[in-house]
Each structure stands twice: as C-alpha cells, then as structure tokens.
Design a protein that fits this description.
Immunoglobulin-like, 2 domains, single chain, about 400 residues, six-stranded mixed beta sheet, alpha+beta
C-alpha cells in the first residue's frame, strides 16, 4: 500500500511539469502552422520580402528581344507595350526608358504607345514601376532592338536635261502650295502616247515617275510602320483620260462597301483642284474641285469601282477600273475620262492641286488610318492639297525602247 501511495505522490509531484511540456508542445505546433501560412520570416535569418517584390510584376510584351525594324521613312514607329496587370487598378505610374532616357510616363492602362525613333541604331528598353512617392518599386526585363532605315532609290525619274529644264521653268512661273508636298516638290504626270492597258498590273508603269512618300495624316496615332498602309503611285495622261496605278501595302484587307459608302472600307481617294491659281485663297470645296474614291472590291462578291464624292455624288462616267489582290495588299489601275472633270480642259504644263490618299480600315467599321501624298491633309480643306504637274515629255515608250536597244 505504501508503494502505491509513493507512486501516486510522485506522479502528482510531476504533474505541473507534464502540463508545462504539453503546453509548450501545443504552442510549437500552433507556431509552425501559423508560420507556414503567414511566412513569418522575422523568426528566421531569411531576408524580408517587401510588398512591392511580392505584388508588382512588370514586363515588356512589345517589341520582342532582338527585334529588327526595317523602316523606309522617318514617320514609322516602334510599337511599345508594357504588361503590369497587378497595378492596373492602382495609382502607380510606369516610366518607359530607352537607352537610359525616360521617353514616356504611363499612368493608366493600356500601357502601350508608338515611339518614333528618328535615327537608326540599337536601342535598349526597360520599364520601371513607381509608387505614389515616385520611388522605383519594380523593374522590367531589358529588351534590345535594332532600327534600320532602308535607302530608297530616287523617286524622280530623270528623263533628260531638256525636260528637267522644262520642269524648273513651269514651277518658276506657277503659283502653288509647295509647302504641302511631302517630297518637297509636285508629282509630275507625263503624257502617254500609248495608253497603259488597264489590267491591274504595274509592269508597264516603270517608264513613268513614281511616288512612294506617303505620310500619316488622319488618325495618325494609329500608324506604326509602312506595313500598316503605304503605296507606290504612278500616273500619266492623254487628251482623253487621266490614268493611274497604285500598289497598296495593307496588312489587313477590309472592304465590304459599295457606291457612296465605299470609303468606309479600304480604298484610295484622289482630291483634285483643277483651278489652283483661281482658288488660291479659297479653303472650301467648290465646283472645280473633285474628290474621287476608288475601291479594290473584296475579290469575292464585290468588284472594283469608283465614286465621285464631290461635286456630283455619283459614279464617274466611262471610267475603267481593275484591281488585283497581292499577298500584302492590292493594286488598283484606272482610266478616268477628262469629261468627268466639268469645265476643265487638259493641257501641257498645267498645274493643279492634288493629293492621293490611302484609307485603311483593318477590321473596323470605319477608317482607322489615312496616309497621303501631302504633309497634312483634310478632305474638306483645299489648303492642305499638294500639287501635280501635267507635262509632255515626248513619247517615253520610244525612248525606253531606244535605251534597251543600246
């Protein structure tokens, strides 16, 4: 009986220690459970991870690393897009730096814009996330890209010294808005002694001068490069018709309209002021001005056509229009009789207001971008027109044949 009493007494004496050990063990169990869920790093030697490092993740989606941009003019741009989903609903800002210089600060999504480099070379791009105090709390990946400007051949076709002298004389004796021409000079349209075959091919047009320096004029914020919309324009004339061919580069062809609605789709528009010197102080369209729209069709159930928006609001009489589809765009070739230009008589050395524009819609229901042959352009403002000179340089076909025989 004594032994049992001693054992019970010994157990009771140790009971507080047992309770203490149980409490410690239970506390440690709770600690490890909480620590695994809340990541209480202050109990260890691990570095403290800041909220910024956990929360903010920013990276450059465009351009891609090592991208090469081959541009043909100084109007083209590099599309820059920053992804930072974690901060889209905060007041943080994003600084965009190229070659360590801040070029843009973005405060609201979408974090994207078009950057115009102006000079060729290699560029490094990064983005920085700033907190409301202006402190850098996250930095993106670094992207390197290259910009090249292709050297274009001269867009003026030198016929001979006599013709160049004739051009200079015409310009010296004429009143025209030289400041509007994107090339710094008018487009010269030569008389053709053998009319071009209207078949939507430009092979026979190489004897005439071409124009390629289209610049963004309307909704130009949507312009990134010449792949969006650009073209090569040729023209000539005789006593009966005005002829032209244009090869359009357009990455997305979209034309589902006809008649007086065709300008809502991809199309080409000529605006002509046949009495330039008489209208030199008149800004608005009048009876001697013409706006003619040309559609390539959709190469399915809609064919090519033309529409005179001003002044007649009707299809041109006797016009011949053909189009062909290209992998990167389309060709329109047309002959428009001069009798559609009311009260105008064609003649050598005539100079008139002229702008050719390419309308690009992509997958939208209305025009997304307009590129034009004049530096600035407004369909309702004659003061923004460039210039065209009609010139008889002799039979260029015979001259070309003589060159090939030599």
């Amino acid at each position: 009986m004594k032994n049992k009493y001693r054992k019970l007494t010994l157990l009771l004496d140790r009971f507080p220690y047992i309770i203490f050990i149980v409490i410690i063990g239970f506390s440690l169990l709770i600690f490890f459970i909480v620590n695994s869920n809340l990541e209480l790093n202050f109990f260890s030697s691990a570095p403290v991870e800041t909220e910024a490092e956990e929360k903010f993740n920013v990276f450059i989606a465009s351009p891609t690393d090592s991208k090469i941009f081959n541009f043909i003019n100084k109007n083209e741009t590099v599309p820059i897009e920053i992804k930072a989903k974690e901060i889209e609903n905060t007041i943080n800002e994003i600084n965009v730096l190229i070659n360590d210089q801040t070029i843009k600060t973005l405060s609201t999504p979408p974090y994207e814009f078009n950057w115009n480099p102006q000079e060729e070379g290699e560029y490094q791009l990064i983005a920085q996330v700033l907190n409301p105090e202006g402190e850098i709390i996250a930095v993106s990946n670094e992207i390197s890209f290259l910009v090249n400007y292709e050297q274009n051949e001269s867009e003026e076709k030198i016929i001979n010294e006599d013709i160049e002298a004739k051009k200079a004389r015409i310009l010296s004796e004429s009143q025209y808005r030289i400041q509007n021409d994107s090339n710094g000079k008018p487009i010269f349209s030569y008389k053709c002694y053998t009319p071009p075959v209207i078949d939507a091919s430009i092979q026979e047009w190489d004897i005439y001068e071409k124009f390629t320096n289209f610049v963004p004029t309307i909704k130009k914020e949507n312009y990134t490069s010449h792949l969006d919309a650009s073209g090569t324009f040729y023209s000539c004339w005789d006593d009966d018709n005005f002829y032209f061919a244009i090869q359009v580069i357009d990455d997305v062809l979209n034309q589902s309209y006809t008649g007086n609605q065709l300008n809502n789709g991809d199309s080409v528009v000529l605006v002509i002021d046949t009495a330039l010197e008489d209208d030199f102080q008149i800004q608005f369209l009048n009876s001697d001005d013409f706006q003619i729209e040309f559609s390539p069709g959709n190469f399915s159930n809609i064919g090519p056509e033309a529409f005179i928006r001003w002044p007649s609001n009707s299809a041109p009489n006797g016009a011949n229009i053909k189009s062909s589809r290209l992998s990167d765009g389309y060709i329109i070739e047309a002959a428009v009789p001069w009798h559609n230009f009311t009260n105008y008589t064609v003649q050598d050395e005539d100079i008139f207001g002229f702008t050719v524009s390419i309308l690009d819609t992509d997958n939208l229901e209305s025009t997304e971008l307009v590129v034009s042959s004049s530096k600035q352009f407004d369909f309702n403002n004659i003061f923004t027109l460039g210039n065209m000179v009609l010139i008889d340089a002799g039979d260029l076909t015979e001259e070309q044949e003589e060159i090939e025989e030599q």
